[in-house]
Design brief:
2 copies of one chain form a homodimer.
Chain A (H helix, E strand, L loop, with lengths): L4 E2 L21 H25 L3 E8 L5 H8 L8 E5 L5 H4 L5 H4 L8 E5 L8 H4 L5 H4 L2 H14 L2 E9 L2 H13 L9 H7 L2 H14 L7 E5 L3 H16 L3 H29 L1
Parallel strand pairs in A: 2-4, 2-5, 3-4, 5-6
Antiparallel strand pairs in A: 1-6
Helix pairs in contact in A: 1-11, 1-12, 2-11
Amino acid sequence: MPFATRVHPGKKIRLSDIDPKANGGLEKADGEAQLEKLSLELGELQELLYAAGTHSLLVVFQGMDTAGKDGSIRAVFNHTSPLGQRISPFKVPTPLERDHDFLWRVHSQTPEKGMISIFNRSHYEDVLVVRVHELAPKAVWSKRFEHINNFERLLADSDTIIVKFYLHISPEEQEQRLLDREREVEKAWKLSAADWVERRSWSKYMTAYEEAIQRCTTSYAPWIVVPSDRKWFRNLAVAESLVETLRPYRKGWVDALTERGQAELTAIRAARGERGRRN
Amino acid sequence: MPFATRVHPGKKIRLSDIDPKANGGLEKADGEAQLEKLSLELGELQELLYAAGTHSLLVVFQGMDTAGKDGSIRAVFNHTSPLGQRISPFKVPTPLERDHDFLWRVHSQTPEKGMISIFNRSHYEDVLVVRVHELAPKAVWSKRFEHINNFERLLADSDTIIVKFYLHISPEEQEQRLLDREREVEKAWKLSAADWVERRSWSKYMTAYEEAIQRCTTSYAPWIVVPSDRKWFRNLAVAESLVETLRPYRKGWVDALTERGQAELTAIRAARGERGRRN
């Protein structure tokens, strides 16, 4: 039984119906043991993805401040090779980025075949923060859902596997985490006064997330809602969803890399033979 | 009366119905005088585009070998400032480009606000040469028309003005130009044996161009067919189409740059005043 909620295209979703405190009926120690296994398997799958070179993987992380975007990336991708993945954080757009369409900076960071791109925030900010704070008129942001779906379909048609995680925390848990950061000076760099201001827009954000998740869940680029009040469970649920998404490709990748290897060996033997004759 | 044929969305077009030798009833000297005026006006319009910073311009050039893509760019953009424009030639994709979706390399070259991007060949090669030489299966390239329209709409929604030129030459004129290049060693670098081989696929290319032009002519990104057997007339027709496209924006750009200028002057005077007080 999956730990996270996979959204289905065309289906209504209410975030308030999903419990951020869910633990899948597990104890923490149990969850951590399962995570270790899953992230090892993810490492294997990445190696196959890399060697086969037939697909790429795009993983999007979104969530309110403190929801654990950085933390999940650290915990889940700790048995994967850094050579095969690239993490792209999307912060406030630069002037040059702002002078292009909103997908320009994102498109440049999409993964080539064999690679994983991890988006820490993403093009979805352009229908989230932009909407909540009215940084663009509705006439502009409301067109973006379709642009996003078209863009993600373009990637999917080029064999990019897309998984999008919404890390779902409760406002109470967020408050706790912000206070924790305030108490520890080593963590306070992650904090800003703006975080407290942002909290006031919580319900506006929930509305924006619900619409984005609903309108941009497609068969080729689903959203997955991850209960995130418990960090260990959030990590487990993310890892499980990723592994479940990739497992069906395993056989094809093994076949593809075997084929590549055979071709390479044939070429190598031919080259060796030629050199032998020349000497 | 426009010298080039502006294609209309949803309308059939037969390239064989358009005369590549058309001269608009003009003599060459007359045409060259008109071109000079138009390219001066284009220079002025570019300055306004740049200063206003509200729009960008994307100009696509496509055509068979020797149709005059380089030549038109040289002749038409000779009174525009190189600071405000960027020419992107799209050649055979690199391995990294090939490992991304076909629009990846193109998207990175789109113009930011205030700028002109000129594409010497473009994303259309992926439904032209790729189709003619079966470099990808039909299932792949046939999906690209829609991807292209979606992509161009994304750009248009961000205030990019798009104009796409098909430089239309006859196979007889091409033969003449190839032979001319062969005769002059200084021109032969532009020639390759492949050019003669490509000629054999002429009618396949015409079919591919007709479908691309028809399916990817939209209100926001029209194709313009330019009779190109006479170089002077081709240049004139390109310049005229560009100027006609940009003229309606002139007033808005003047207003926008006046507004920007006013704001700047107010800020400058305030800064000067402050410094005065400090000293």
